[in-house]
Amino acid sequence: MGIKVLIIDDDEDLVESTKLLLEPEGIEIIGALDGDEGIIKAKSEKPDYILLDIDMPGKNGWEVLKEIKEDKELSSIPIAMLTATALSESIEREEIDRVVDYITKPFSKEDVIECIKQVYDF
């Protein structure tokens, strides 16, 4: 397969449906259903790209983002944040600068592919 994408989202149906949509396009999908599992899989799987949900129980997306960006082995992985709502103006600029894009749910296959193509040509 071409690109390996880790989706960190507590919505198992979203992870599975995204996998079904994108794997025929040559994108390998790895799913993690919470922030801690996402960090573990990022370290073990070394994905090319991460789709990270903002609103998750336990460790939220911003906390996961911070941990990934502070890890020398993971810090260069491009990350797009997934959100079901418009972004709050209270989000600090530093957090916004650490991601390559934002995708609003529900999203289409094309939304995700367009996001990834900003970083990788496949």
Summarize the structure.
The protein has 122 residues and is of the alpha/beta class. The protein has helices spanning 12-22, 35-45, 61-69, 93-97, 109-117; strands spanning 3-8, 27-32, 49-53, 79-83, 101-104. The protein has a five-stranded parallel β-sheet with strand order 2-1-3-4-5, with helices on both faces.
Radius of gyration using CA atoms only: 13 Å
Strand runs, count: 5
* Number of helices, counting only DSSP H or I runs of 4 residues or more: 5
Write out the CATH superfamily name: Response regulator
Question: SSE order, as H and E?
Answer: EHEHEHEHEH
* Percent of residues in helices: 25-40%
N→C terminal distance: 11 Å
Placed side by side, the strands forming the largest sheet appear as 2-1-3-4-5
Largest sheet: 5 strands, parallel
- Low-pLDDT runs of 5+ residues are none
* Residue share in β-strands: 15-25%
The CATH architecture assignment turns out to be 3-Layer(aba) Sandwich
Structural category is alpha/beta
In CATH, the topology is named: Rossmann fold
* Count of the domains: 1
Overall CATH class: Alpha Beta
